[in-house]
Amino acid sequence: MTICRRCLVSGRVQGVFYRATTREQARQRGITGHAINLPDGRVEVLACGPAEAVEALCRWLWQGPPAARVESVDCETIEMPLPSSFTTG
Question: Annotated catalytic residue: which of 6, 27, 37, 69?
Fold first, then answer.
């Protein structure tokens, strides 16, 4: 089963390679979507792919790269066409 989840990650997650590391984790799992910085300091992650892989990435978002300090990860399942790749913005 293929799903898409939109997650908002808050804490010290900008300027610490969070987006790039998330992209690498997503690509390793065969997930498409994006990781983008939001003006309020959070990172939005859209993850689409096999349900088990997406759920594993959502759990990993709590860890992030070594310099990150994640305070919260709020995820919701959304309906949308599958993106063709994983990008950062």
Answer: 37
Mean pLDDT calculated for residue range 53-60: 98
Domains of the chain by residue range = 2-82
Q: Which of 19, 23, 29, 42 is catalytic?
A: 19
37 is catalytic: yes
Topology of domain 2-82 in CATH is: Alpha-Beta Plaits (3.30.70)
Residue type, 49: G
Q: From residue 24, how far is each of 14, 43, 50 by CA, in Å? A: 16, 15, 16
Q: What is the pLDDT of residues 30-46, one digit of tens each?
A: 999 999 999 999 999 99
Question: Tell me, what's the pLDDT at 82?
Answer: 79
- Give the model's pLDDT for residue 80: 79
